Amino acid sequence: MKQRSAHRILCVSTTWLLLTGVLLSTVACERKSGGATDTTGDILVGFYGSLTGDGASFGQSSREGAELAVDELNAAGGVLGRQIRLLVEDDQSKPEEASNAVTKLITQDKVVAVIGEVASRRTLAAAPIAQRYQIPMITPASTNEKVTEVGDYVFRVCFIDPFQGEVLAKFAYNDLKARKVAILRDQSQDYSVGLTDSVAQHFGRLGGQVLPPVSYSSGDADFKAALTRIRGEKPDVLFATGYYSEAAIITRQARELGMKMPILGGDGWVGDALQNGREALNNTYISNHYSGDNPDPIVQNFVNAYRKRFNREPDAIAALGYDAIKVLADSLTRAQSTEGPKLRDAIASADVPGVTGQLKMNAKRNVDKPAVVQEVTYAGGKVTFIYKTTINPG
Amino acid sequence: MRVTTKLLATAATIGLLLGLNYLFEHGFGDFRINAYYARILNLIGINITLAVSLNLINGLAGQFSIGHAGFMAVGGYSATFVTVYYGSAIAGLFGSSLDEPAGAAVVMLVSLVTGAAAAALAGLAVGIPSLRLRGDYLAIVTLGFSEIIRVIILNIPAVGGATGFTAAIPITNFFWIFAVAILTIVIVRNIAASTFGRVLATIRGDEIAAEAMGISTTRYKVLAFVISAALAGVAGGLSGQLFANPLNPQNLNFVRSIEIIVMIVIGGIGSISGAVFGATALTIMPEALRRLDQQFPGLRMVTYALLLILMMIFRPQGLFGRRELGWAWLRRRGPAAPAAAIK
Amino acid sequence: MDTVLQQLINGLSLGAIYALIALGYTMVYGVLRLINFAHGDVYMLGAFAGYFLANALDLDASPSIAGAIVVTLGAMAICGVIGVLIERLAYRPVRHHSRLTALITAIGVSLLLEYGGQVVFGANPRFFPQMIRAEVYSVGGVQITNQNLLIIVVAIVVMFGLQFIVHRTRIGKAMRATSFNLSVAKLMGINTDYVIAFTFALGSALAAVGGVMVALAIPRIDPLMGLMTGLKAFVAAVLGGIGNIPGAMIGGVLIGLLETWLGATAYSTYRDAAAFAVLILILLFRPAGIMGTATVEKV
Lengths: 394, 343, 299
Description:
Chain B is mostly helical. Chain B has 13 helices and one strand. Chain B is globular. With 299 residues, chain C is mainly α. A two-stranded antiparallel sheet of chain C has the order 1-4. Chain C is globular and about 60 Å long. Chains in contact: A-B, A-C, B-C.
């Protein structure tokens, strides 16, 4: 009885497999030789990001920046005489879905390049796909070092965590004269963990004292316990290396506990919900990719165009999405082709003035550009980032 | 005679899978499978293993566990850990390397076995205290354990923490995924048709009566739990070593566990064919609904949730109920189910 | 020492929030033997309802106590209705199916509210208007905000109110009767459908209060906020003895204190797991909870 059932099920499953195989070969097969890239019609560019889930704010910002850039380019006649079409896929804030989305964009939709993602862990998941199929990927805002180490088809237009950490450490030590700092980090976000390590390392190197970091998880709403403990150590400066939602609450609760020292954060603070911090945001600073009040026409044009189209102020992530497309377009023009290898080489030698600074691709496929430190203020219901200083790499 | 038939069947299946794997990777003449479909197919295979193994504990034994993602995590991380830190060494022992099929196969085997063992241990650790509880409480406790496992993994830097964890050379392929899937189906089916399965069915029907009849219910429940956990661990090992599919504690949370539960609920708790169907349908569905998501982001998940609720209201036994797909198409029943199985 | 006191205050505040939500869980479980997974999401909806009401009344520009009360009552009413709707549409059809079916349905409703919330409200967190200007009182070396105090006071008031309803009113008696034995209660002439609907409405209203209170103190609200908080509140309910009202309060406070204490130690990263560890320990050693009575399962 036992053997017959086992035998039976083997037969049944084999039949299933064969059936599926037949079905698949009719639906899912393609020609190996096929796919000489389309030389007429729209240029297809893929975009993947978190349009839903906990990364949604970033996903939407970067998408809007990218779409703005695409529309401007198309209005000016397109690239290589063709219009650009941006194919957008949602990854639900999950790395697995990011891979699904990118696989689809590259192998099904046959895009010539992929823009995305903001969160490093999702970019790390999907980048190998771009590398394997030799389709260039440009990440607008993933700051983890390892991202561009995946392969020579992966590029970024933002600075990397180690640099951002250095910027913050230098600012705290030199400008704020801090000698003892505490760090509150989001252990569930690789961005925060990486930035924390970098800040600690650089601040230590400058000769300051770094208290052991205290951790929380994304989505936490109550930091009083951790803050109380930090309060007891009396640091000169507090770093909150996580994202904007928690940063807002951290600053508020810190002030409620009577902690008046400067609070510093990274570009992850840039998001609508930072507003929650209200008056607590005064006396805080962030390192950022760009400053919206920079009078440079390239920045102001972007800010005005974005404001007009989306009815709100652009954030750094949107600016980076915009810049990523600009770099891609410039590279397409220089390469005079949409073929993967040629496009890749063109991107590798990119030197484009962007909203977030001069985007000159270096040998590691990162950009050497300075970071700005901004002071955050809250007045009349609005958060404003005021430019404080620029810190150059090296 | 029986043994020979079984051996032949096994050899034939392995041969077939190897052949298909070759076709998968190298194509046929000028044709090959599109990478997107290939990826979905691989994900289906992994989900089949997850769903069928969950069915062992939720369906056959009637114990409601919402902790499957936790076992997947334990197994997945252990397996990937072995490959990442010891992979080259192991391949080297056999005079090969991770790049070559022989070396990769050996490492895969070792890593999957490790994953299974680790997950089995976790299953033991979770099962022994939990399985004294019933129904809702068991559900919440398993959920709790799964979350604890997740938080612990998040705090281990050696396995990547929040950044994710995967092997530099992804060694999972079609063969392994479907070999494991078929093996899982065979194991669960054999258990279901055996004395052990009958005991489980009795426990599912009325636990107190079973206990009163002298069956040591905890022992059998724990055994089923351990086997189920081990299989989930193997699935995790396969998943983490699939190309462009790193393990991430954020995504091995209880939402993942619930997704697997939805698979077996749609197919029919207690039916292996149902689990296979559910796994396939629910892997394809989110991809098929991408168009919908582009208009209204998030509608996919809402559809999921509605599906679950409507199924429970109108057809709680799922598509297949307790029935299986066999030669006697749809007329066959699964192992004898006491009348009061689903009240 | 002031750090310890401060942590105590922090813990009590947090615990009061869990207690408010746990009360709803405990009531529904008591009457229906159903873990209403969606309860945490009703709490989220309460916060959102409060958000829209408060914005409609433009309370950010002109905060007032009266406005806050109106908003809270409004949120309670809205969530009460939502609770009844959920019961009627999703739970009643499966009431006579197995408990597992009901549990899965509850999970489904929870997912629906969360992801539906993301579709309707957008996934981005919103900031709750400050209906009452925050003030910090310094007592000794300890900082207490007026919001903290409000939460604690409201939770206590609510608990007494609930005890009154359950033990001193007719509907409360009907609730208790239904929780003992639904079929017999029906035979006694109690309209059990009405009682159950009332229980849901009451529990949901309580969750709404919790949502508004929390949003005041920690103004970030998003559709997924009910997930973790709801689970921890459930643990609190079990800890205190599920079905027991003072138990829910005690459980909530204990979980709040535990989380706060852990958050202040080197094990802060395990905070989330702590609540579950407590749950497991409780269910192993004293499944009835602190205040519960052990029930003998009849064959």
